[in-house]
Amino acid sequence: MKNVTDSVVYLGHWSSAGSFGFNTDILATNPINLSVVLGVLIFFGKRVLSDLLDNRKQKIVNSIRNSEELREGAIEQLENVRARLRQVELEADQFRVTGYSEIEQEKFNLINSTYKTLEQLESYKNETIHFEQQRAINQVRQLVFQQALQGALGTLNSCLNNELHLRTISANIGMFGAMKEITD
C-alpha cells in the first residue's frame, strides 16, 4: 500500500512539461483558469437550467389549470347531481302523496260500491220475500177457495135435486170464471 501512496505523491511532483495530470494543490492552480471555466459553465448552463426550470414551471402551471378545470367540472357535475336528486326527491314525495290520495280514493270508492251492492241485495231480498209472500197468499186463497167450493158442492149435492143442482152448478161456474178473471 505504501507503493501506491508513493506513486500518487510522486505523480503530484512531476513537472508539467510534457505530461498531463491533475494538480491537487488548490493554492497552486491557476485562479484565472478556474474563473474562466466557471464563467463558461454559468453562461451556458444558465440557459439550460433556465429552460429546464421554465419547462418544469409550465408543466406545473398546466397541471394546476387541468386540476382547476377538473375541479370545476366535478363541482358542476356535483351541482347537477344534487339538482337531479332534489327533483327526484320531489317527484318521489309527489308520487307518495298522489299514491296515498289514490289509495284513499279507491278505498272510499270500494266502500261506497260495497254499500250500494248491499243495498241492492237488501232490495232484491225484500222483493223476493214480498213475491214469495204474495205467491203463498195466492196459493192459500186458492186452496181455501177450492175447499170451500168442494164443501159447498158437497152440501149442495146432498140437499138439492137435479134441476136445482144444475142451476147451482151453472151459477157457480159463472162465478168461478168471474173470479178467475179477477185474479189473473
Automatic annotation (TrEMBL):
It is a single-pass membrane protein. The keyword Chloroplast applies. The keyword Transcription regulation does not apply. GO terms for cellular component: chloroplast thylakoid membrane; proton-transporting ATP synthase complex. The chain crosses the membrane at residues 32-49. Residues 64-98 form a coiled coil. GO terms for molecular function: proton-transporting ATP synthase activity, rotational mechanism. It is found in: Membrane; Plastid, Chloroplast thylakoid membrane. Keywords: ATP synthesis, CF(0), Chloroplast, Coiled coil, Hydrogen ion transport, Ion transport, Membrane, Plastid, Thylakoid, Transmembrane, Transmembrane helix, Transport. In plastids the F-type ATPase is also known as CF(1)CF(0). F-type ATPases have 2 components, F(1) - the catalytic core - and F(0) - the membrane proton channel. F(1) has five subunits: alpha(3), beta(3), gamma(1), delta(1), epsilon(1). F(0) has four main subunits: a(1), b(1), b'(1) and c(10-14). The alpha and beta chains form an alternating ring which encloses part of the gamma chain. F(1) is attached to F(0) by a central stalk formed by the gamma and epsilon chains, while a peripheral stalk is formed by the delta, b and b' chains. Component of the F(0) channel, it forms part of the peripheral stalk, linking F(1) to F(0). F(1)F(0) ATP synthase produces ATP from ADP in the presence of a proton or sodium gradient. F-type ATPases consist of two structural domains, F(1) containing the extramembraneous catalytic core and F(0) containing the membrane proton channel, linked together by a central stalk and a peripheral stalk. During catalysis, ATP synthesis in the catalytic domain of F(1) is coupled via a rotary mechanism of the central stalk subunits to proton translocation. Belongs to the ATPase B chain family. This is ATP synthase subunit b, chloroplastic. It comes from Orostachys japonica.
